[in-house]
Amino acid sequence: MYGDKIKPEKFMIKNGPMNYYRQKTFVFYLLMAALLSGCSWFGGKKAMFADLYVGTNRNLVVLLPTIGGEGLHYEAQGFIKAVRERGFEGHLKILDVDPSLYLNNKIIELLKTEVIIPAKNDGYENIILVGISLGGHGALLYATKYPEDVYFVFVMAPFLAGPVVADAIEKAGGLDKFEDCPSIAWDYACNMWYLLKKYVSQPDNRRRIALGYGTEDRFARQNRLLADTLPSDLVFTVSGGHDWGTWKKLWIMALDHFQVLKSNQILPGKNISK
Questions:
Q1: Which residue, 114, 129, 170, 189, is most buried by CB atoms nearer than 10 A?
Q2: CA 150 to chain centre
């Protein structure tokens, strides 16, 4: 049954096409992201589990955690309570994710086979991805690879790789003008930004991403580059850093915004602007 605990063995890491050096490089970036963000490391866990909070309609909201890997923080920090207080209906599926699943983008295929496809088969009409920090990175990766699967994405302080590509994007005058990745740049970071550029080049897709971040966040610079490509009403900022207090404020700000849209029967993925 969809909503049962996902089998742990399906989330073991196997060898893939990424060579040893690139695997070490990505692990290094994951570790650096953990140190910069202040998120706790989620060690030794090789599975992704899900808790299901049942509403009354056929919308599914999938919440991907920070690099710490533990989705329980969404509930502990009051995110789920805030949803219930505002009367939103839907199924909220909170995931625990071993960060090593981001190697070779394995997390994307697992989301597809273990979460998204079963949800569609079970009759869910709209699938919304929510992610914070590394979880936001994963949500954006999924949306760029399988845009037909995702109704909407809300990411807070997503990790968008290092500063070298950000320098190049700023020098080019924005993501829409960005063409050539610096030779010294991390290939993974270049590909990430190319995917985002292609995705937001479609007007429909620009209305399918909402972005929130603290103005003092360590990833604020890269987040602003993405924000510049999105409609202004789908970008949320508050004073704050890379921490749960800031993300909670952003979450409530976004919920209140979409509650107004809901009351006026305006859905974020249905309106095209910019």
A1: 129
A2: 12
Element (H, E) at 200: helix 187-200
Tokens encoding 234: 């789908």
3-class secondary-structure state, position 41: coil
CB 130 within 8 A of CB 97: no
pLDDT digits (tens, 9 = 90+) for 129-146: 999 999 999 999 999 999
User: How many other β-carbons are positioned within 10 Å of the β-carbon of residue 121?
Assistant: 9
Distances (CA, A) of 122 to 49, 129, 199: 18, 17, 27
Taking the C-alpha atoms of residue 80 and residue 158, their distance in angstroms, rounded to an integer, is 20
- 3-state SS, residue 132: strand
The span from the CA of 260 to the CA of 269, in Å, is 15
**What region, left, alpha or beta, does residue 235 occupy, with left being phi > 0 and alpha being psi -120 to 50 degrees?**
beta
The rounded distance, in Å, linking the Cα atoms of 235 and 200 is 14
